[in-house]
Amino acid sequence: VQLVESGGGLVQPGGSLRLSCVASGFPFSSYAMSWSRQVPGEERELVAAISSAGGSRNYADSVKGRFIISRDNAKNTVYLQMNSLKPEDTAVYYCSARRVYWGQGTQVTVSS
To answer: Which pLDDT band, with edges at 50, 70 and 90, does 1 fall under?
Structure first.
């Protein structure tokens, strides 16, 4: 099983980033996927989740209306579109399959 995130980086407040996570080694289209984030010294926070077929999506209150989770089962990829970014969105972002398998994370820093 492998989950590889990409797309993180440094962005100014109000900016946007799109994270991608490419999965392999398991039947991706049968798995619910999610994005979580973690700041050093704090617990990992679930940010967004999407059902296996993509018909159901859930978001943390802190990102609702700003972030969009989506998936392309033909490409074994899940995305997180992040808009109107705030400094408090700064964290390492992880994708997960059923919160059992995890990627290595990608750093997102929101700063002017």
So the answer is: very high
Strands (E), the chain: 2-6, 9-11, 17-24, 33-38, 45-50, 57-59, 67-72, 77-82, 91-97, 101-102, 106-110
| pLDDT digits 0-9 by tens, 29-38 | 999 999 999 9
Task: Show the tokens assigned to 75.
Answer: 């490409």
At 89, give phi and psi (nearest 5°): -85, -5
Which tens digit of pLDDT belongs to each residue from 45-90? 999 999 999 999 999 999 999 999 999 999 999 999 999 999 999 9
Work out the number of other CB atoms within 10 angstroms of the CB of residue 58. Answer: 14
| Contact predicate 23/78, CB 8 Å | yes
Give the position of tokens 């984030």. Answer: 37
